[in-house]
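To whoever is covering the structure queue this week,

Two jobs came back overnight. Logging them here so there's a record in the thread.

Job A:
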Amino acid sequence: MKKRLSLLFMMVFLMAFALPVSAATKVYVNADVNLRKGPGVNYQIYTSVSEGTALKYLSKSKRDDRGVKWYKVSYKKKTLWVSSRYAKKVPQPVTSAKKRVVTKGRVNLRKGPGTGYKIVADVSKGSSLKYLNKTKTDKRGVKWYKVSFYGKKVWVSSKWCQFKNEDITMYVIAEDDVNLRKGPSLEYGKYTSVRKGTSMKYLGKVIKDDRNVKWYKVSYKGKSLWVSSLASHIK
């Protein structure tokens, strides 16, 4: 018995470290809907929100007397409830800032993570190189960063460079005449349409709908909208 309990404890312990940290979750409303002070239609209406509104999900759901699920959400710093009949819970992908490595002096770029590897090129102070999300430590305990240099994958010593977050503006290009919607699926209302070749600022979010189709969040004429990946691509 003790052996079984020890094994169970060990499995739970390992799972706690193995599982990824949960991404934040949003609730998107797919119709104009009331937000209430509790999980049911018998609770007082606090306010209403329009179709496409994104609400922060507070990790709690409850069912009312009719068996309808209600989501606990945050709206303008208020804790409220919205019916699942008019809203959809969508996990948000965890994103990390794109990083670049900036050199602090003239430095060699090598084929591998150490001074024993062949020099591919040298770059001057202030050179900005795309970091490829890989770091290794050599025998001397020095960290080396894997970077991209004119399409080649090379390594640079951490002694001669530092990280710098880079704000990269990306765009979504319409591959055909396409509708822009208030939310990430065909369930949401059409806001407008754009012509083939239209360029829209990408807002860094991708969500899959019930059909497993990706939708990109974009900015168009000051509005945050969604466009299907079936008729667009990120550039």
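Job B:
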Amino acid sequence: MNDEGRWFSCLLAHASGSCPFIPRCRSVLESFMRCSLRLLLSAFVAFGLMMPSVSRGDEPLATLLGLPLVFRDDFESGNLDRWEPSEPKAWKIDIQNGNKVGSQFQHLVTKTPVRSPFNRSVAKDVIVGNCVLDVKLQSTARDYPHRSLCLFFGYQDPAHLYYVHLGQKTDDHANQIFIVNNEPRKKISTKTTEGTKWDNEWHHARVVREVESGKIEVFFDDMNVPVMTAVDKTFTWGQVGIGSFDDTGHFDDVLVYGTKVARPAAATKQN
């Protein structure tokens, strides 16, 4: 008799009261039920981590981490009018199974005042202090150690910004949090991983920025444990954006939660 048959026979005997080992049987069954319950709970947790944590149905949450939703683009409009790209020719709307996505479909070298990502597009007219940038993203680049996509925040101008480099293999110039402060990009990560495991599937990324404490946290697929952290108080406001250093990718369901602020007059004059 196989294991399933023995369990079934045991259950029948126990139910009829004819099992000669009722105390032992009860203990085994209780252990089995506890194990089954743990497995069931683990499955629910795993499923929850795979599901978008910022939406109910097709609608995003109105607030996240205490911050209101201030920007949303799922690209179903069919245009990129809400974005300011560093090179418009690198961007287009793509369609996947009837779903429109923002596509940085080619790498074009653009002139930057200091060493920083070439392919960048920031959300228009959305300047925030504390913020959460939540986005779905898909790498379309070839598979190599620096295969990557980038997320931008605290963007004030091409020489003053933060960005996250989600690179496949970590080194001082990949898979880190960086600051660009009128000099070539500088690593400020206090924690990272061995690398971002890219494939050809869609992934979920999030950047959490807290101005007062300087906290920066980056999440990838698992929204409970950050894959990167940093602390920096240099920039207290800026725009947010998507793109890559020198690769290609797709983006969708871009959500920005945050505290809107005005661009300082001095910065407006400089730009």
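Note for Job B: The CA atoms of residues 134 and 172 lie 25 Å apart.

Please reply-all if you pick these up so we don't duplicate work.
Q.
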